[in-house]
Structure formats: structure tokens, C-alpha cells
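dumping this here before i forget
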Amino acid sequence: MSVFSKRYGYSEDQGIQYECVGKRLRNRLWNHFFSAEYDADPFNRDDDSLTNIEHLMDGLGLTFNIPRSPTARAANAKKLREYVFDETKWYLIYDLIERYVGLFDKTTQRELCKEFNEVLEDECSGYRFVKGLITPITNKEEIKTIEKATNTKYSAVNTHISKALVLFSDRLKHDYENTIKESISAVEALCCIITNDKKATLGDALKKLENKGIKLHKALQSAMSSLYGYTSDEGGIRHGSIDFAGASSEDAKYMLISCSAFVNYLIEKWEKVK
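structure:
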């Protein structure tokens, strides 16, 4: 269950984190890095050879103390943390974990990447580890598409897309199944507004768009009808089927972006023929 601030929209951490890193995400990435490093190389060892922390500091251009004692190691770790927590340079935490993963063999790299990716997905980051490298999984254009679809002239459309975004972005309890439902409901709401038929299903409304002067390519109409069928058939999400209870982030993200884009597209088409 999500906490009070998430349920009622008071938290500022909403949306996909692209070209930014929120405090919560930054803290969690550091925690996973630091716990992995401590497990691999405890602070209470006796020798003074360099550890991964010193190697990382060197790679990032930072000076460090020779780790002759736990106190010296702790001082180095503190300095490294302060460096990557510079809020004016959001990307430094990604530099750190990418360099850190690169210090290990392939097997350990895969394990670390999996653990970091779980955090990145939980916190709705726009990045993931792919083959050992931090890689964007979204872009500014996709985010702008969603934002535009939440600020149309039509409150019903805005509400559905906004709900979908909140459900997708909830850091504590992702709801990918209902992200998909709300996304397709936004398209349905717009089509009902355009056709002036509040009771029509999306499938029916799509067929009536041409009567309002909106001509869709047959392939595009078929594709959107198929997406609607995916959510609305007897085993679909809108019928609460357990078959879709495990909808993935990829499924939800695709539907959120695709439905947002289709909403924006339909509005532009309609504005030209009204």
C-alpha cells in the first residue's frame, strides 16, 4: 500500500525521472552501491591496499587518503558521497555506479546490474543498465507527448492520462495494469467527445470518426482497435483478468506513450475539421 503523500498527490516525486535524479533515487542507488562494496570489502580489514572506493575516486578525479584504517576509508567514502550528491550534476551518481559495475567480472556485473535495475524501475528512472552501461529507455519527446496529453481542452482526457501517469510513476506501488486501463480510457473518452456519443465503446467510436470528418488510415484505425481489443476482450485488463495482473513496465509504458500520442494526434485532426 502506498503512503499518504503518494495516494493524495502531495509528493513532488511524480513522473519519469529523465535527465534528473530525485533525492530518494539518489539515496537508494548510493545505499545499494555502498552495501555491495561493504559486503565485498569490509571496512575492518587490516591491510592498507587501495579498495574500490579509492579506485573510483581516482577515476572521477578525486584525491583520497591511503586507507590505512577504517576511519580513513570512511573519510574517503564520505568524500565520494558528497561528490556524487552534487544536485547540480544529476548524472554523477550514474557515473559512479557505471564505473563500479565495470570493476567486476561478467557474472558479478550481471548480478549488480540486475539489482541496480530493480531500484531504477522502482523509482521510475528513465535509465537502465544495458550490457553494463547506463542507457536511456525514454527521451524528452516521449515525456513531452505525455505532458501534452494531460493538458488538453478536455478534462476527461486529462484525468485519464494523469491517472495513468500517477499509477505508472508511483515509487512504492506501481500499478501497470491500471496504467494501461486509464491510458486506453483516455482515447475512448476523446472519441466519445468527438462523436458526441457518451455511451459508445472505443471500437464503435473509432468507426464513427469519419462521419465527423476525421479520416484515419485503415492500418492506424486497425492498430488502435487491436489495442482496445487487448484491454477489453473477455480475458483483457478492463475485465480484471488475472492473466494480465502481471503486466510489465514495458507494456504500461508503451500504452501510456502510444495512447498519449494518439490523443494528441486526434485532437490536431479534429481541430482542422471542426
